[in-house]
Amino acid sequence: MSGDEKAQAKTEQAKGKVKEAAGRAVGNERLTAEGRAEQKKGDARQAKEKAKDALKD
After folding, report:
1. Band of the pLDDT at 47, cuts 50, 70, 90?
2. H-state helical runs in the chain
3. pLDDT of 13-32, one tens digit each?
4. Terminal CA-to-CA distance of the chain, rounded, Å?
5. For residues 8 and 45, is the Cβ–Cβ distance under 8 A?
6. Own/partner pairs for 39-45, CB < 8 Å, 24+ apart?
7. Whole-structure pTM over 0.85, yes or no?
8. How many other C-beta atoms lie within 10 A of the C-beta of residue 8?
9. Cβ–Cβ < 8 Å for 36, 18
């Protein structure tokens, strides 16, 4: 996994968790959903990079 892509995936996951927690804390369903979506985007990016790495070996 390239360092930049790995960092970006982790950042998206972390930002998503914060948004989701904030949305739950204030009862904002839209913010909660945005947080979940951002986490999934980070998960997908991470999975893509892991697949690339597996194919290199």
Report:
1. very high
2. 3-26, 29-56
3. 999 999 999 999 999 999 99
4. 12
5. yes
6. 39/12, 39/13, 40/16, 41/12, 41/16, 42/8, 42/9, 42/10, 42/11, 42/12, 42/13, 42/14, 42/16, 43/9, 43/13, 45/5, 45/8, 45/9, 45/12
7. no
8. 16
9. no
